[in-house]
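Customer escalation, tier 2.

The customer says the design service returned an amino acid string that "doesn't look like it belongs to this structure." They asked us to rerun it and document both sides in this ticket. The original structure tokens are below, unchanged.
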């Protein structure tokens, strides 16, 4: 399994077949969003990768992947209110945003502090810190498509979350009060929940982390 995306230069066989196999075998629903070819091609060129990488294949073949009733939104070539990988990323800083989740969490493919090969890092609303998952993009996506989201997100779920999350738009996340990073907000079944703009929710978590000195 690839640890990083393949760089551009030369023709490479598409890895989409491998991704599609994992999607078909996933233990929960995975929806492949349609994508506009021109938009996807521009995104691929912006990252200077090919479809010989899992990331490149996902960008060209999908507008994004809605994993586990839409809880996890793996970014692709963009669809509707869901951004493409390039528009969601800070490429100048070496940060490639590869997924967002309904709670305002972010998955970013970037180098760690040691300067090693890029890995996927997660910033979540439960602790407001960056966690290096120590996985390349391909291994991370393989894990998420193979059932890894269930255990990963268990602390952030509540009874009946599936229907509530499925109703949220592609550009929406679920804001909770008290927030998940507080002691009072850990029980998601007992908090107030409402849908707000996903970008707004992501920014809210990051701004809070800065104010608390976590970033």
């Amino acid at each position: 399994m690839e640890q990083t995306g393949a760089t551009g230069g030369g023709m490479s066989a598409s890895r989409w077949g491998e991704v599609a196999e994992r999607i078909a075998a996933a233990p929960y629903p995975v929806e492949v969003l349609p994508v506009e070819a021109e938009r996807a091609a521009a995104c691929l060129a912006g990252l200077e990768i090919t479809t010989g990488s899992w990331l490149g294949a996902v960008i060209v073949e999908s507008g994004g992947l809605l994993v586990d009733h839409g809880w996890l939104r793996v970014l692709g070539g963009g669809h509707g209110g869901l951004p493409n990988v390039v528009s969601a990323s800070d490429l100048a800083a070496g940060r490639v945003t590869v997924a967002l989740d309904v709670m305002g969490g972010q998955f970013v493919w970037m180098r760690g502090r040691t300067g090693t090969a890029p890995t996927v890092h997660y910033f979540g609303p439960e602790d407001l810190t960056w966690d290096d998952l120590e996985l390349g993009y391909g291994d991370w996506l393989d894990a998420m498509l193979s059932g890894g989201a269930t255990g990963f997100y268990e602390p952030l779920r509540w009874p009946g979350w599936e229907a509530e999350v499925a109703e949220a738009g592609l550009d929406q996340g679920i804001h909770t009060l008290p927030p998940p990073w507080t002691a009072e907000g850990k029980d998601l079944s007992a908090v107030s929940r409402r849908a707000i703009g996903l970008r707004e929710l992501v920014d809210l978590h990051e701004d809070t982390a800065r104010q608390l000195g976590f970033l």
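Tier 2 assessment: The sequence is consistent with the input. The longest strand covers residues 96-101. Confidence is low (pLDDT under 50) at residues 1-10. Sent an explanation to the customer and offered a walkthrough call.
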